[in-house]
């Protein structure tokens, strides 16, 4: 799974709803595939369950996000309380 110029160009899509649609259909499936593989690998290496977190941009109501991300952490509830690694920002 690789990112293409089209994926990066998606972050220039005008409008909140339009950009979110592109993020959800084009970028997040790649994040999910990469992140699930990474979480499985890190779980095996660390001996701790690791969980994938993908940006939802849920609180946005006007401005489209400039970037989007994924993180892997040992908490199912979130990634901010503990160190999360690695984190990719596509924007």
Short description:
This protein is an alpha+beta fold and 91 residues long. It has helices spanning 5-10, 16-46, and strands spanning 51-54, 68-73, 87-90.
Full CATH superfamily name? Protein of unknown function DUF1054
Helix content: 40-55%
CATH topology, anyone?
BirA Bifunctional Protein, domain 2
Mean pLDDT: 88
Strand content: 15-25%
Number of DSSP strand runs: 3
Q: Given the helix and strand composition, which structural class is it?
A: alpha+beta
Any guess at the CATH architecture? 2-Layer Sandwich
The overall number of domains is 1
Strand order of the largest sheet: 1-2-3
- The total of helices stands at 2
Describe the structure.
- The protein has one domain: 2-Layer Sandwich (BirA Bifunctional Protein, domain 2), CATH 3.30.930.
- The chain contains 2 helices and 3 strands.
- Helix content is 41%, strand content 15%.
- The protein is an alpha+beta fold and 91 residues long.
- The two termini are 18 Å apart.
């Amino acid at each position: 799974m690789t990112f293409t110029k089209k994926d990066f160009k998606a972050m220039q899509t005008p409008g909140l709803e339009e950009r979110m649609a592109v993020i959800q259909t084009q970028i997040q499936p790649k994040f999910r595939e990469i992140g699930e593989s990474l979480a499985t690998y890190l779980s095996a290496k660390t001996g701790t369950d690791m969980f994938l977190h993908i940006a939802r941009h849920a609180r946005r109501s006007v401005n489209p996000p400039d970037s989007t991300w994924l993180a892997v952490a040992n908490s199912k509830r979130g990634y901010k309380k503990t160190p999360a690694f690695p984190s990719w920002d596509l924007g």
